[in-house]
Amino acid sequence: MLVPDKFVILHLLDIKQAAESLNGIRMEMTDAAFPLLKGLVATTDVVEACKDVNIAVMLGGYPRKEITLRKDMLSTSVSIYKAQALALEEHDVADCKVTI
């Protein structure tokens, strides 16, 4: 997906309830001193996460529980991805590539 010598700035987005864990991930990534990691944005704000993004890899969604119907889980996940897609449309670069 990227050339081997291309610097990256990761934008990590999670829900507010996971902000502490997200900060832990940010610290771990920073401490690892990956040579091509130029920067890291860890946030619970969808607009901040989508600003100036060239490549968006959307992982996650609403977790399915035993009593959750598949259609309900998918409906909730779609609303999550829709909010992210709208923020990307408004704040990313013109040629952003997106995968879910």
UniProtKB/TrEMBL annotation:
<dbReference type="GO" id="GO:0030060">
    <property type="term" value="F:L-malate dehydrogenase (NAD+) activity"/>
</dbReference>
<dbReference type="InterPro" id="IPR010945">
    <property type="entry name" value="Malate_DH_type2"/>
</dbReference>
<comment type="similarity">
    <text>Belongs to the LDH/MDH superfamily. MDH type 2 family.</text>
</comment>
<keyword id="KW-0560">Oxidoreductase</keyword>
<feature type="domain" description="Lactate/malate dehydrogenase N-terminal">
    <location>
        <begin position="10"/>
        <end position="98"/>
    </location>
</feature>
<protein>
    <recommendedName>
        <fullName>malate dehydrogenase</fullName>
        <ecNumber>1.1.1.37</ecNumber>
    </recommendedName>
</protein>
<keyword id="KW-0520">NAD</keyword>
<dbReference type="GO" id="GO:0006108">
    <property type="term" value="P:malate metabolic process"/>
</dbReference>
<dbReference type="InterPro" id="IPR001236">
    <property type="entry name" value="Lactate/malate_DH_N"/>
</dbReference>
<dbReference type="Pfam" id="PF00056">
    <property type="entry name" value="Ldh_1_N"/>
</dbReference>
<dbReference type="InterPro" id="IPR036291">
    <property type="entry name" value="NAD(P)-bd_dom_sf"/>
</dbReference>
